[in-house]
Amino acid sequence: MAIVNNGDVSVVIENKHNTPPNMAASVVTTARSIATGKVSHLRFSTGDKVETVPLFTKKMEFSYKDGEDFVFVDPETYEMTTVTPEIVGDGKNYLVENGEVTMTFVEERAVLLEIPPSVTLEVTDAPEGIRGDTASNVQKPATLETGITIQVPLFIKNGEKIRVDTRTGKYMERA
Q1: Per DSSP, what are the bridge partners of residue 108?
Q2: Which of 11, 54, 96, 172 is the most exposed place for a label (fewest CB within 10 A)?
Q3: Rg (CA), the chain
């Protein structure tokens, strides 16, 4: 959700409900300001009023990286949206050309980016497994097309496509 905090619109990244003994319940939130990008921790008591701001989401496709920023395209209107690295976060490790993401907007400005739970990536560098090293679940490091290095089974070779869990960054299966 997005809220108005001291006249500034902020996106709630995380919230936690606190009920300490002998005290009133409260909600502690972590919110990022849309204008400045600054992250702040806010505490709201039971009687506090909070003004919310409407959010809307769109399916977008990653197009290319422009310096530090990332450019996404709306597949229906071909409208381009440039997003800062702070909003993309660790998702940059899983963005490939034409890869689909869900983008959340507040007042026509991109504020959150959701990567699918799994993506298919090509292995660009995977050293050969050591012959005879066949104990159960032995793994080796492999570099993927986005530059991220993950652990994969010994049988994975250069050029193969694999599925990666974007939440944990772990190998799932061959694609």
Answers
A1: none
A2: 54
A3: 21
Query: Which of 13, 35, 53 is the C-terminal boundary of a domain?
Result: 53
Give the domain CATH number at 25.
Answer: 2.30.30.30
Alpha-carbon distance of 144 to 160, in angstroms, equals 10
107 in the same domain as 140: no
Number of independent structural domains in the chain: 3
In the sheet that holds 170-174, the strands lie side by side as 149-153, 139-144, 118-125, 161-165, 170-174
The residue segments making up the domain with residue 6 are 2-53
Residue 90: CB partners within 8 Å, gap ≥ 6? none
pLDDT in tens, 88-146: 888 899 998 888 999 988 878 888 888 999 999 999 998 886 665 566 678 889 999 98
6 and 25 both lie in a single domain:
yes
- For residue 93, what is the domain's CATH number? 2.40.50.140
Query: For residues 125 and 156, what is the distance between their CA atoms, to the nearest angstrom?
Result: 10
pLDDT bin (cut points 50, 70, 90) of residue 163 is very high
Asked if 89 and 107 touch (Cβ cutoff 8 Å), the reply is no
pTM for the complete prediction? 0.72
